[in-house]
């Protein structure tokens, strides 16, 4: 048995180490000031895919990412850890996409990839934080979905069995393939890069990256086709530009506020309801909660 697995992985600004220059004056993320990283839960998703490939070695893992040219780093990272190939969905027309437009574009790329049994995404991205894209991709493809997965237990007789992490415990569910699975951060951590794969794929590049290279290397990419990372535009995936990027996004991010907690604001409360109500009102007004 072998499975065609697509891992959805997003390049995100490392919002875990937000410094004072992380936000621009217009309230948008200063992506230049924040290192771009592999979304943490997408690494858990990749690990689940690699786990399936260990059990069914003929399986194929394709990492799919939508983003600017530098998101090719996500594909290389996936290859260094054991994925078989990668697709970068990149086009200015994808910029400013909300989750609806993002999931539309990703679903069009999945259609173009063609064969898929399991699509595995992270539960949530650490920048948009909506946890909407995985379920939306399933809806767009008209297939089932299992969210908050902690472990893919088994795949047999055309069905997948999964342990889910819920607020008050775990449950084991089963559903027919094909399906979308979103993976929780409580799942097994991703295995590190493999030294041999790092050597093999360190020169892997997209056509756009190659264009900025001097010509010395061209023979290398002809001789080793696996070094050519696939790059698709709106036209390549037959997407309707109106449904992509800003034009396809009913949700517009109006303003992002930088909430920095400062220790000196501690307050001692008694168990008096009025005091607690007052504190809650303050925390909501300061956007610390809610
Ligand atoms: C601060 C902030 C707030 C935002 N708020 C909203 C909002 O309220 N509503 C809205 O519609 N949009 C919002 N956006 C835009 C949203 O971030 C983008 O649409 C984004 O592409 C997808 O949403 P997400 O980051 O919430 O991802 P999530 O839905 O949390 O991502 C879940 C999983 O989907 C996959 N995935 C997500 N994006 C990609 C990608 N580009 N390539 C490959 N796989 C991917 C990954 O596996 C990821 O783990 C916001 C963006 C920011 C920076």
Topology diagram in text:
Layout: E1 4-8, E2 11-13, E3 36-38, H1 40-55, E4 60-66, H2 72-81, E5 85-89, H3 99-113, E6 118-122, H4 133-141, E7 144-156, E8 159-166, E9 169-176, E10 179-183, H5 195-201, E11 205-206, H6 207-211, H7 218-223, E12 228-232, H8 273-285
Parallel strand pairs: 1-4, 1-6, 4-5, 5-12, 6-10, 7-10, 11-12
Antiparallel strand pairs: 2-3, 7-8, 8-9
Explain the overall architecture:
The chain has about 290 residues and is α/β, with parallel strands linked by helices. It is about 30% helix and about 25% strand. It has eight helices and twelve strands. A hairpin with a 2-residue loop joins β7 and β8. Flavin-adenine dinucleotide binds near residues 65 and 251.
Concise account of the structure shown:
The chain has 290 residues and is an alpha/beta fold. It has 8 helices and 12 strands. The protein has helices at 40-55, 72-81, 99-113, 133-141, 195-201, 207-211, 218-223, 273-285; strands at 4-8, 11-13, 36-38, 60-66, 85-89, 118-122, 144-156, 159-166, 169-176, 179-183, 205-206, 228-232.
Q: Count of DSSP E strands?
A: 12
User: Poorly predicted ranges (pLDDT <50, ≥5 residues)?
Assistant: none
Average of the residue pLDDT scores = 91
Oligomerization state: single chain
- Bound ligand species: flavin-adenine dinucleotide
Give me the CATH superfamily.
HUPs
CATH topology: Rossmann fold
Task: Return the CATH class.
Answer: Alpha Beta
* Rg over CA atoms: 21 Å
Query: Helical amount among residues, as a percent range?
Result: 25-40%
CATH architecture: 3-Layer(aba) Sandwich
For the terminal residues, how far apart are their CA atoms? 47 Å
Number of helices: 8
Amount of beta strand? 15-25%
Largest sheet composition:
10 strands, mixed
Q: What's the number of structural domains?
A: 1
Globally, the shape reads globular
């Amino acid at each position: 048995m072998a499975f065609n697995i697509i891992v959805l992985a997003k390049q995100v600004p490392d919002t875990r180490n937000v410094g004072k220059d992380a936000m621009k004056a217009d309230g948008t993320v200063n992506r230049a000031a924040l290192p771009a990283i592999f979304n943490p839960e997408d690494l858990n998703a990749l690990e689940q895919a690699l786990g399936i490939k260990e059990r069914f070695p003929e399986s194929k893992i394709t990492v799919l990412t939508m983003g600017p040219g530098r998101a090719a780093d996500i594909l290389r990272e996936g290859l260094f850890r054991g994925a078989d190939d990668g697709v970068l969905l990149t086009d200015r027309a994808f910029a400013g996409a909300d989750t609806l437009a993002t999931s539309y574009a990703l679903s069009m790329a999945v259609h173009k990839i063609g064969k898929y049994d399991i699509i595995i995404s992270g539960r949530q991205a650490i920048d948009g934080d909506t946890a909407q894209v995985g379920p939306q991709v399933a809806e767009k493809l008209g297939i089932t979905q299992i969210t908050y997965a902690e472990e893919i237990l088994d795949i047999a007789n055309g069905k997948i069995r999964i342990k889910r992490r819920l607020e008050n415990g775990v449950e084991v569910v089963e559903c027919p393939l094909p399906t979308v699975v979103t993976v929780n951060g409580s799942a097994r951590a991703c295995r590190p890069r493999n030294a041999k794969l790092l050597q093999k794929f360190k020169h892997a590049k997209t056509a756009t990256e190659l264009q900025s290279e001097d010509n010395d290397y061209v023979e290398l990419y002809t001789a080793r086709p696996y070094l050519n990372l696939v790059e698709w535009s709106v036209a390549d995936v037959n997407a309707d530009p109106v449904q992509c990027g800003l034009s396809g996004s009913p949700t517009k991010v109006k303003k992002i506020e930088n909430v920095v907690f400062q220790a000196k604001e501690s307050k001692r409360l008694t168990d008096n309801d009025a005091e607690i109500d007052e504190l809650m009102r303050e925390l909501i007004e300061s956007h610390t909660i809610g």
